[in-house]
Design goal:
heterodimer; A: alpha/beta; Rossmann fold; 2 domains; six-stranded mixed beta sheet; 17 helices; 20 strands; globular; B: mainly alpha; ABC transporter involved in vitamin B12 uptake, BtuC; two-stranded antiparallel ribbon; 4 strands
Chain lengths: 507, 321
C-alpha cells in the first residue's frame, strides 16, 4: 500500500439536478484508518456526494481517486469492486428475505441452489470479528432497526469493503444503540477500515470523528480539518452560515383545564400488530406535552387515534366529549387540529392550489361557502391573507401546493390548522427536513399557540426539539409510555434509558 | 356425469390456465404487472395454429407461439421498464394490441385443419386406479410438462440464487440495485418469460385442448382468469396449479350439467330451457370476480405474498423505494 496516497480523494466534484447545483466543486479526502465526518444541514449535498462515491450518480465533472488510482464508476458494482461500501440512510434490505439472503444478494455464490448453512457460518464468523451480532436465519422484517443496520454493515464487510460510507447512521437509533455503533466503528478502524460518517449532529462529530469536512448548500466550508482545535460553535456556524440559537425562549405561565385526556388506549398498526399499549395521557390548556422516542415506536398510531384516523380501544376525550373511534370530522368540530407527519400524502393535496388546500377544512363555513357553493374570490382573499401572515413564499395563491419547498409547505399546513384557533393541536414531526430558518418560524408558531391557550401534543424524533419546546415530556417505547417527566428537571441519561425501553427507576 | 371424465378434462383445460398463471407469477414477482395476458394468449393461439397449418408441424407452431407471446410482452416491458409508464394502462393496451393483431392475421384460419399436438399415455403411472386414467392417459406432452413446471417454478423462486434475485427485484429493487443486481435487465427477462408462457398456453388451446381457430372465442377471456388466479394463488405456483385445475374441472362440469334430462332424479331445468345455461356459463367469470374481491382483501390484510414493488416503476436514485 502506498502510504502517501489517501484512501479516497474526491476533487472538484460537480453534480447537478434539474434546477439545483447539489455539489459545487467539492473536495474531500479520506485518509487510511480514519473516521471522517461529513457534516451539513439537510439538503447540503452530503448524500449526493456520497452517492457519487458509491456509484449511484455520475458527477458532471471532477475526479475520484481510490488509493491513488483514478476511477470512474458506472454502477454500484464498480464501487464495490474497489472496496467501497455504503450503509444507506434508508435501509436497502429486502424485508421478506433472511439476513443471509440479503447479504448474499448480488453475489455469484452460491452457484444455483441455496443451501445456506455454510454461508450462515461464514457470516457468524464475520459478526464475531467486528462485534455485530444478529441471527443470520431471521427475516429482516422481524429485526429491530438497530439490528437491520448491523445487517447493512455486514453486507459491506462481507464484500470485503475497506472504505465504508455511513449515511446518517444514528438518525434511527436509540442512545444506547448509538453507543454500540460508535464502538463498532472504532473496532473497524482499528482493523484498518476507513469510514466516512455523514451526519448533521454536531455532538456526534465531536465524539467520534478524527477529521471533519463541512458542506453548506453544495459548497465546502471546512475541508478535512482535524477535530483538535475545532469548537462545536465554530462548526455550527460553518454549517448554517450564521450564529445559531440553541435555546428557545419559553415563557412560563399558568396552565388551564384539561383539554385532551386519553385512558388505556391501545391500537394496532398496519400489519395488525400491537402499536399502542394502554397509553394514558392528558394535556392541559396552555401546555405542550412532548412525546420523545425513536421513530416507529407507536408515534404515528398515537397521532392517528386522536385525530380519528385509526380505530382503538380505550377512551379519548376532547373537552369532555368522547371522540375515540369517531369519524375525523367529530374531532375537527371539537377543535382538534392536526399537523401530520407526511406533508404531501396526508397534509396537503400537492396538485391542488394553495387556495384549495387552505380551505379544505373550512370550505363549508361562511363566508367561503354556504354548504353547497364555494365563493372562490373570498377563498383566494382568505388565502392571500394567510400567505402574508405566515410568510409563505409562493408565486401566487393559485400555485399548486406541490411546487412549494418543504418549509413553505409546512407553513401552509400550519396556517390552515392554526388559523381556525384550535383547542388541541397534534403536531407530528413539525420540523423534520426543514432548514434552520423554517424550523425557527415553526417553533415560534407553536409557542404562540401555547400562549393563546391551546393544548399541544408535540411528537418528534428530535430529542432536542422535544426538550426545548415541551412543558412535560412523555417517553414512548414499543407503544408504551415509559414515563413522564417535567422539562424543568430533565435528565438526558434517564430519557435515553426510557427511549431504549427501560422503565423509569422510581426512587 | 362421470367424475373421472370431469377430472381428465379439467386437467387438460386447467393446464392452459396453469402456463399463463405461472408466467404471470414470474413477471409479477419481478415487480411488473402485465394485464395483457389475454392478448398474448390469443396471439399465441393464432400464431401456433397458423404456423402448424403452413409448415405441417404442430411443434414448430408451439415454438412460434412462444416467441410471439414473448415478443409482444417485450413491448409492455419497453413501455413500463424503459419509459416507466403506468403498468395498468400499458397492460390493458397490450390486450387490445394482441387481440387486434391475432384477429387480423388470423383471418381465414377458421375451419382449417392443421396437424395437432398428439396425446400420449405415461407407462406404469397410467395403471394407478382412478387417478391413472384421468391424469396420465390421453394428454398432450405439454399437460405432462405442466406437472413438472409447477414444482420446478416453486423451487426456482424459493430455493435458488436467480430466484432470490427475482424476489429481491420485486420486493425492494433499490436494495438489489445497490448490490449490483441488474434490476432493469431482470425485469425485461421475466416480462419476456411471462409472455412466452402466455403464448404457449394459447397454442395449447388451439392445437390441443380445444383445437381450432374461433377468433376471439378461442381464448374466451381465459387470460383474465389466469391473472385472477395469480392473485388468488398469492403468487405461489402450487396454489396456481390447484386453482387452474379446479377452474378447468368447473368448465367441464358446466357442459356436463346441460346434457342429461334427469338430474338427481329431478327434471333438469337446463335441459328443458337452454336459456338457463347462460347463467351457468357465466359461473367461471363470476367466480373470478369473487376470488379477486376476497383474494385482494386477504392480501390487503396480511400482505400475503404480494411483491411490495409490484406495479411501481423503478427509478434509480429516487428516495423511499
Amino acid at each position: 500500500m502506498n502510504s502517501t496516497s489517501p484512501a479516497v480523494e474526491m476533487k472538484d466534484i460537480v453534480i447537478e439536478f434539474p434546477g439545483v447545483l447539489a455539489n459545487d466543486h467539492v473536495n474531500l479526502t479520506l485518509q487510511e484508518g480514519e473516521i471522517h465526518a461529513l457534516l451539513g444541514e439537510n439538503g447540503a449535498g452530503k448524500s449526493t456526494l456520497m452517492n457519487a462515491l458509491a456509484g449511484l450518480y455520475k458527477p458532471a465533472s471532477g475526479t475520484i481517486r481510490v488509493r491513488g488510482e483514478l476511477v470512474s464508476f458506472n454502477s454500484p458494482r464498480d464501487a464495490i469492486l474497489k472496496g467501497i461500501g455504503m450503509v444507506h440512510q434508508h435501509f436497502m434490505l429486502v424485508p421478506t428475505q433472511t439476513v443471509t439472503e440479503n447479504i448474499l444478494l448480488g453475489l455469484n455464490e452460491p452457484r444455483f441452489v441455496m443451501s445456506l448453512n455454510k454461508f450462515d457460518q461464514k457470516i457468524l464468523d464475520l459478526e464475531e470479528k467486528y462485534g455485530l451480532f444478529v441471527d443470520p436465519t431471521t427475516k429482516i422484517w422481524q429485526l429491530s432497526v438497530g439490528e437491520q443496520q448491523r445487517v447493512e454493515i455486514l453486507k459491506t464487510l462481507y464484500r470485503g469493503a475497506n472504505i465504508l460510507i455511513m449515511d446518517e447512521p444514528t438518525a434511527v437509533l436509540s442512545p444506547r444503540e448509538i453507543d454500540e455503533l460508535m464502538e463498532t466503528m472504532r473496532s473497524m478502524t482499528d482493523q484498518g477500515k476507513s469510514i466516512i460518517f455523514i451526519t448533521h449532529k454536531l455532538g456526534e462529530v465531536v465524539d467520534i470523528a478524527d477529521r471533519v469536512t463541512v458542506l453548506r448548500k453544495g459548497v465546502v466550508t471546512a475541508e478535512g480539518e482535524s477535530m483538535k482545535g475545532v469548537t462545536k460553535k465554530d462548526l455550527a456556524q460553518r454549517m448554517v452560515g450564521r450564529e445559531v440559537i440553541f435555546t428557545v425562549e419559553r415563557e412560563s405561565h399558568e396552565l388551564g383545564d384539561v383539554v385532551m385526556e386519553m385512558t388505556d388506549v391501545s391500537a394496532l398498526n398496519n400489519r395488525g400488530l400491537p402499536a399502542l399499549k394502554d397509553v394514558s395521557l392528558s394535556v392541559r390548556s396552555g401546555e405542550i406535552l412532548g412525546i420523545a422516542g425513536v421513530g416507529g415506536n407507536g408515534q404515528s398510531e398515537l397521532a392517528e387515534v386522536i385525530t380519528g384516523l385509526r380505530k382503538c380501544s380505550g377512551k379519548i376525550f376532547i373537552q369532555g366529549e368522547e371522540i375515540s373511534n369517531q369519524p375525523p370530522i367529530k374531532a375537527i368540530n371539537r377543535g382538534v387540529s392536526h399537523i401530520p407527519e407526511d406533508r404531501t400524502a396526508v397534509g396537503t393535496a400537492p396538485s391542488l392550489s394553495l387556495t384549495d388546500n387552505t380551505i379544505m377544512k373550512g370550505y363549508k363555513k361562511h363566508p367561503i361557502g354556504d354548504g353547497w357553493r364555494i365563493n372562490f374570490q373570498v377563498a383566494q382573499k382568505h388565502t392571500s391573507k394567510l400567505k402574508d401572515k405566515y410568510n409563505i413564499i409562493a408565486p401566487s395563491v393559485n400555485t399548486p401546493a406541490g411546487k412549494l419547498s418543504g418549509g413553505n409547505l409546512q407553513k401552509l399546513i400550519l396556517a390552515r390548522e392554526i388559523n381556525c384557533e384550535p383547542r388541541f393541536l397534534v403536531a407530528m414531526q413539525p420540523t423534520r427536513g426543514l432548514d434552520v430558518g423554517a424550523i425557527e418560524d415553526i417553533r415560534a408558531l407553536l409557542l404562540e399557540q401555547r400562549s393563546h391557550g391551546a393544548a399541544i401534543l408535540l411528537i418528534s424524533e428530535e430529542l432536542e426539539e422535544v426538550l426545548s419546546l415541551s412543558d412535560r415530556i412523555a417517553v414512548i417505547s414499543e407503544g408504551k409510555i415509559m414515563g413522564i417527566v417535567d422539562s424543568e428537571d430533565v435528565d438526558i441519561d434517564k430519557i435515553g434509558m426510557m427511549m431504549a425501553g427501560m422503565q423509569e427507576i422510581r426512587e | 356425469m362421470n367424475f373421472e371424465i370431469i377430472l381428465h378434462a379439467g386437467i387438460a383445460t386447467g393446464s392452459v390456465l396453469l402456463f399463463a398463471a405461472i408466467g404471470e407469477i414470474l413477471t409479477e414477482r419481478s415487480g411488473i404487472l402485465n394485464l395483457g395476458v389475454e392478448g398474448m394468449m390469443l396471439l399465441g393461439a393464432m400464431a401456433g395454429f397458423g404456423t402448424s397449418l403452413a409448415t405441417n408441424s404442430a411443434w414448430l407452431g408451439v415454438a412460434v407461439a412462444v416467441l410471439a407471446g414473448g415478443l409482444l410482452s417485450l413491448a409492455h416491458g419497453l413501455v413500463t421498464i424503459h419509459f416507466q409508464a403506468d403498468q395498468v394502462v400499458s397492460g390493458l393496451s397490450l390486450t387490445f394490441l394482441g387481440t387486434g393483431l391475432a384477429l387480423v392475421l388470423g383471418e381465414g384460419l377458421t375451419g382449417q385443419t392443421p396437424p395437432l399436438l398428439l396425446d400420449y399415455n405415461i407407462p406404469v403411472l397410467q395403471s394407478i386406479p382412478f387417478l391413472g386414467p384421468a391424469l396420465f392417459q390421453d394428454h398432450g406432452l405439454l399437460v405432462y410438462a405442466g406437472y413438472l413446471l409447477t414444482p420446478f417454478t416453486w423451487f426456482y423462486i424459493q430455493k435458488t440464487r436467480p430466484g432470490m434475485h427475482l424476489r429481491a427485484v420485486g420486493e425492494k429493487p433499490a436494495a438489489a440495485d445497490t448490490l449490483g443486481v441488474n434490476v432493469y435487465g431482470l425485469r425485461y427477462l421475466y416480462v419476456f418469460v411471462g409472455g412466452c408462457l402466455a403464448g404457449l398456453s394459447g397454442a395449447l388451446i388451439s392445437l390441443s385442448v380445444s383445437p381450432g381457430w374461433y377468433s376471439s372465442q378461442t381464448t374466451s377471456g381465459q387470460g383474465w382468469i389466469a391473472i385472477a388466479l395469480v392473485i388468488f394463488a398469492q403468487w405461489n405456483p402450487f396454489r396456481a396449479a390447484l386453482g387452474g385445475y379446479l377452474f378447468g374441472m368447473l368448465r367441464r362440469l358446466i357442459l356436463d350439467l346441460q346434457g342429461p334430462r334427469l338430474l338427481f332424479g329431478l327434471v333438469n331445468p337446463l335441459y328443458v330451457n337452454s336459456n338457463y345455461s347462460f347463467f351457468l356459463i357465466m359461473t367461471p367469470y363470476i367466480l373470478t370476480i369473487i376470488a379477486l374481491i376476497f383474494g385482494s382483501r386477504a392480501i390487503a390484510k396480511k400482505r400475503a405474498g404480494s411483491p411490495s414493488a409490484l406495479g411501481i416503476p423503478y427509478i434509480r436514485g429516487e428516495r423511499g423505494q
